[in-house]
Each structure stands twice: as C-alpha cells, then as structure tokens.
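thought: fold this chain, then report.
action: predict
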Amino acid sequence: MFPSRFVPCPTCGASIERHEAESHTCEPERVLTNKLSLLREEVAAFERQFRQFADSREGRFEAWAAARQVRTG
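observation:
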C-alpha cells in the first residue's frame, strides 16, 4: 500500500502535499476554524449545561434579577 501524497497540517488542518509541508503557511481564518471544530463537543456541552441552569429555579431567578436590574438601572 502506498502512503498518501497529502497530509493534514497539524495547525490549520489543511490538506497539503507532503513535499510542501515545510513551506506551508497557515491562513489565520483556517487556524481559527480548525480550533473551533476541535472544541465542538465542549461548546455543545456548555450549551446543554447552560440550558439546564436556565431552566432551573436558580436560573429563572437570575434571569429575573438581571432583567430587573437592567430596567431599574
């Protein structure tokens, strides 16, 4: 079996040819996209935990108190 001629960049995840790996320059936008995709599960877990808190008695009170503080200045 032959090795692939392409490898993923460890920083930005772009598919680059092996012989160009040393000269590859990552695009900042692609680096950010790659980092966000690696954090996808953590973000999803945070959103679940936040929804659970917001639906709880304490969460509803905090939302009420914050809204009241905004109205009263």
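thought: worth noting. The mean pLDDT is 94.
final: tokens above.
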